[in-house]
Design brief:
The protein is mainly β and 863 residues long. It contains eleven helices and 46 strands.
Length: 863
């Protein structure tokens, strides 16, 4: 599970709020067709097709084809193109799907009435000798001197406004009985200039910043001085929502080779590789704000690929070749989920020999379900008070974080905003804050939001306490049988400075009760606040699978109860734990823990060792106790994260993440039985590879320094015996199958983002994406910790036939690879996984008669 899952949950929650009514209440019309030259019959690309009297439109593709879908169209369709006579065709409003083909007459032909030779085949696009290609090459060659980053120092003020709106607001929707008590919200309905859809705002965020840039060594820092949002913090973590909007609407630099939107990389038309990715065509030379500019149109050669369609307007001179305006959109065929439309407009003005961004606006139409209601997301940025060549103190540029903020920026009063905004809010924008505040006083709205919160987080609030998580109320496993659990925690309403969490559970198979409780005290103003700084005391009387710490989810989650193979070896433990954690604004994390843990075997797990005085005789140990101090240092430059109820999800970026862990076990300290040192270093890096997609690589090296340590206190690789695919686990490995005290782990995943499937017609239409993985761990078990060489140590587990089930990795690494298909029905990923080594071990999963072959699936939300 990643941050994209949380994005889905948030959007899905809001979707539920408004979609308790019918989705389709107005007729949806889909029109497709082809535009050709009336005389030559050659397809005409880049022709503007729109409903007459509206802003709803599209352009024909490289083959002259177009598709236009809307509920808000007029009764006729207009085709217009430079050099051709505009053409209007009537629409049959009674037909849901129809085809309208345009045969456009050349203006030159009409004027001269000259005869032409009709050619029956399409002219092939050529790069060589194409003036449009030559032009974009000159723009690329000159972009360094034109962009603002060419100066040594600059700074400016920045005001950003992000608005989220529910769209497709019909009269039938307004009249729904469930919305009777909140009719006042429809006073704020407006109409989109992008595609004519009526929309209702429900979220507004304003951000005021000061930006500083230094060319060498390069540093760009945004110091936020104020953030204001419409408030739903009773149900939604507003800092997470703010982070989410930052991720969805990142700063766009047209001069970059790749532009990141929706966590995807769009090829910029100004990339050196753009000539291989896009088809370019010069449309016309026009006047724009007193400047002579060339209108250069472009679209991806393969319209399923992640790229833009649109126009860049280039200064018409022989020296500068500066982009003065960019007007970008997306193809209807793009392999992009949920985004129905996009408009990105940027305008530039010349200041101090460079071209500075002065207008920056992006609008997206996000629709979760085809033809249903969806969301508009708009981001508008204003820049002013530019200063160049002014060097600031080194501390201004110091640090790895690109955005610097503290909690005080969320507490600015109205007087601050009235003075700080470069322009006043419109009456409608001011009304958004008032509307949301009023909406939260309506009982039916509050009830609906409580239900959504329960579905999303798994917790139900009851004033000062909340109960959950619901997904763990019932589960099952081989040892416990049916397991019931009930628990909850306090909320900030009781105290924002401290939190109590607890639960009780009971297994009907082992007839054992379990429980846990913790007390957390934060040094921040609120325990949900980031960056974290807290102490926590916890007590557990619980059972779990040996060495299997599940990521982000409770181990007794119902959906993880379904497992393959043998799952009858568990540990019952009693634990007392103290934790201290502090996160800094510079993205360092420091943690210090102490845990006292007593463990007892359950199921078929035994603590047996040989009696050295009576060879062949086994002695059974009832329990072991560890007394452990551990420390954590983590460095994640520019890390952002989304705060969930049970966990916090990191958002990947291009920077590496370093994690250093150290643990010290102390013999005889508070009853500890063993002395050991465990150290590990982990590195994670995400690579953005433009046309080739993205890759994620994880490396970990570690060692346990000990003499005679029980094998289950050494390194047990994270295995997976469920049928769900887990990104950080070995999905074809069994629990307790391998153990090491020295190890190196490599996990790599490459997502091609449809690079291959986009070339295959059927798969291109289905918008499937391909992904491959490689996972390996290599290590060894030193003689002093090897039960096979030390009979007085707790012995490895064996199956019913007496065969060993636990091994070291000294002879060769464990390796598994997979090939998967993502984006099946937009949410599903299916991987075929092949285990390449240690196929001779017992209890091996097999598929179609092939050992070590399996299929795993997962649900994941991605754009």
């Amino acid at each position: 599970m990643g941050y994209k899952t949380y994005k889905f949950r948030f959007l899905f929650g809001l979707f539920l709020l408004f979609f308790s009514t019918a989705l389709f209440s107005q007729k949806f019309i889909s029109i497709k067709g082809k535009v050709v030259d009336a005389s030559t019959k050659e397809p005409l690309p880049f022709v503007s097709i729109s409903f007459v009297g509206t802003t709803i439109g599209t352009d024909s593709d490289l083959d002259g084809n177009y598709v236009l879908e809307s509920k808000w169209g007029s009764d006729s369709l207009l085709a217009s193109f430079v050099g051709y006579q505009p053409m209007v065709l009537p629409i049959d409003k009674s037909s849901k799907n129809q085809t309208l083909n345009f045969n456009m007459e050349s203006v030159a032909l009409l004027a001269t009435e000259q005869q032409v030779v009709v050619r029956g085949k399409k002219l092939k696009y050529k790069r060589k000798g194409n003036p449009a290609v030559e032009l974009i090459k000159k723009v690329i060659d000159n972009k360094k001197k034109n962009r603002i980053g060419n100066v040594d120092y600059y700074e400016y003020n920045k005001y950003e406004k992000i608005e989220l709106d529910l769209n497709n607001i019909t009269d039938e929707f307004r009249a729904k009985k469930g919305l009777k008590k909140i009719q006042f919200i429809f006073d704020y309905v407006d109409t989109s200039e992008m595609n004519g859809k009526p929309y209702l705002p429900f979220f507004l965020r304003e951000t005021l910043s000061k930006v500083y840039y230094r060319k060498s060594p390069e540093a760009k820092k945004e110091y936020r001085t104020g953030v204001k949002m419409s408030n739903l913090d009773q149900w939604v973590d507003m800092r997470s929502l703010s982070t989410l909007t930052d991720v969805l609407y990142q700063n766009v630099d047209i001069y970059e080779n790749n532009i990141r939107l929706f966590d995807l990389q769009f090829m910029s038309p100004l990339s050196p590789l753009s000539n291989t990715f896009y088809h370019f065509r010069i449309i016309d030379t026009i006047q724009w704000k007193g400047l002579s500019v060339i209108d250069l149109a472009f679209m991806p050669a393969n319209q399923a690929n992640i790229g833009f369609t649109g126009h860049v307007f280039i200064l018409n001179d022989s020296t500068t070749y500066a982009v003065v305006k960019a007007d970008l959109g997306i193809s209807k065929k793009i392999n992009l989920n949920f985004v129905d439309d996009l408009s990105l407009v940027q305008e530039f003005s010349k200041m101090d020999s460079v071209w500075v961004l002065t207008k920056d606006q992006i609008v997206t139409d996000i629709t979760l379900f085809k033809k249903g209601k969806g969301f508009f997301g708009s981001r508008t940025v204003e820049y002013w008070n530019h200063k160049f060549h002014k060097k600031r103190e080194g501390s201004v540029y110091f640090g790895t974080e690109q955005v610097v903020e503290d909690n005080s920026i969320y507490k600015k009063d109205e007087a601050f905003w009235a003075k700080a905004r470069p322009d006043k809010l419109s009456g409608q924008e001011e009304g958004i804050y008032h509307m949301i505040d009023t909406l939260q006083t309506v009982k039916s709205f509050r009830t609906t939001m409580d239900i959504i919160t329960l579905v999303i987080s798994g917790y139900k609030k009851f004033g000062i306490v909340e109960m959950g998580p619901v997904g763990s109320f019932y589960s099952f496993n081989t040892v416990e049988g049916f397991r019931l659990r009930f628990g909850g925690s306090t909320t900030p309403k009781l105290s924002p400075k401290w939190q109590i969490e607890s639960y009780v559970a009971y297994g009907f198979g082992d007839q054992q009760g379990k429980y846990a409780a913790s007390f957390l005290y934060t040094f921040n103003e609120n325990f949900m606040e980031n960056p974290k700084h807290f102490v926590r005391f916890s007590r557990q009387h619980e059972i779990n699978f040996v060495g299997q710490d599940l990521e982000f989810v409770a181990e007794d989650n119902f959906f993880l109860s379904f497992k393959r193979g043998s799952t009858d070896k568990m540990l019952f433990f009693d634990s007392y734990k103290f934790e201290y954690l502090v996160e800094t604004n510079s993205n360092f994390t420091f943690g210090l823990n102490y845990e006292h843990k007593k463990q007892r075997p359950r199921g078929d797990l035994l603590f047996d060792f040989f009696d050295l005085e009576n060879p062949g005789r086994m002695i059974r140990q009832s329990n072991i106790t560890t007394s452990e101090i551990s420390a954590l240092i983590r460095f994640a430059p520019n890390e952002q994260y989304l705060q969930g109820r049970q966990y916090r999800l990191p958002i990947y970026n291009k920077y590496p993440v370093f994690t250093l862990n150290y643990a010290l076990g102390i013999n005889s300290f508070l009853g500890g039985d063993y002395t050991y040192n465990r150290v590990s270093l982990g590195i994670f890096k995400r690579f953005y590879l433009s046309l080739l997609g993205t890759a994620k690589v994880r490396l970990e090296v570690g060692k346990v320094f000990a003499n005679g340590l029980p094998y289950f206190l050494l390194k047990l690789p994270l295995a997976n015996q469920t049928f769900a695919y887990k990104e950080r686990a070995f999905n074809m490995m069994n629990f307790l199958e391998f153990v090491n005290d020295e190890w190196i782990t490599v996990m790599a995943e490459h997502d091609f983002k449809g690079l291959i499937f986009n070339k295959i017609p059927l798969l291109r239409r289905l918008k499937f994406r391909e992904v491959i993985t490689f996972k390996a761990i290599w290590g060894r078990l030193t003689d002093k910790n090897d039960p096979n060489k030390n009979p007085d140590l707790i012995q490895f587990v064996r199956n019913d036939q007496g065969e060993l089930e636990t091994f070291s990795l000294e002879s060769k690494p464990y390796i598994e690879v997979s090939a998967g298909v993502k984006n099946i029905m937009k949410f599903i990923r299916i991987d075929v996984i092949k285990r390449l080594t240690y196929l001779d071990k017992p209890d091996q999963a097999s598929l179609f008669g092939s050992k070590g072959l399996g299929i795993r699936g997962m649900v994941k939300f991605e754009f």
